Amino acid sequence: MSIIATVAVLAIAVLHVYIAVLEMFLWTTPRARAAFGTDPDFAEATKTLAANQGLYNGFLAAGLVWGAVADDPVGFQTSVFFLLCVAVAGAYGAATASRKILFVQTVPALVALALVLIAH
Predict the structure, then answer these.
(1) For residue 120, what are the CA distances in angstroms to 12, 22, 117?
(2) Which residues are CB-contacts of 42 (< 8 A; sequence separation ≥ 6)?
(3) Contact indicator for 60, 86 with CB cutoff of 8 Å
(4) Residue 52 burial by Cβ neighbours in a 10 Å radius (0-12, 13-18, 19+)
(5) Backbone phi, then psi, for 83, in 5-degree steps?
(6) What is the pLDDT of residues 23-65, one digit of tens each?
(7) DSSP 99
(8) pLDDT number for residue 85
(9) Which of 43, 54, 79, 116 could bridge across to 20 with cysteines, CB 3.0–4.6 Å?
(10) Would you report the helix, strand and coil content of the chain in percent, each value rounded to 5?
(11) What pTM did the predictor assign?
(12) Cβ–Cβ under 8 Å, residues 57 and 19
C-alpha cells in the first residue's frame, strides 16, 4: 500500500479507538454524552451496552492496524475487509441511529477504501 493509503487506514483506526474509549470508559461523562446525544439517565442505563459496542469498535481498530502493517497481499485484503466493515456499520448506524454517523464513519472509510484500491 502507498503511504497515503496506509495513513488513511491508520486514521480510521484511530477514530475507532477514540469511539471505543468513549463507549467503553467515558460513556457517562459529559464529553461522551455530547458526542452521542444522550442524557445522564440514558447513559447510566445503557453503559454496559455501550461498553459492549465499544469493544466491537476496538476490534475494528485492531483489524485496521493489522491491515496497515501487514505485508501484501494480507495487508491489502485485511484493509479492504475492515474498511468495508466500518462503512457498512456506519451506513447501518446512519439508517437506524443518527445520520451524522454517515459523515463521521462511512464517508471516511469509503475515502480510505478508495485510496487503498487505487494504491493497489
Answers:
(1) 18, 33, 5
(2) none
(3) yes
(4) exposed
(5) -65, -40
(6) 999 999 999 999 999 999 999 999 999 999 999 999 999 999 9
(7) T
(8) 98
(9) 54
(10) 85, 0, 15
(11) 0.92
(12) yes
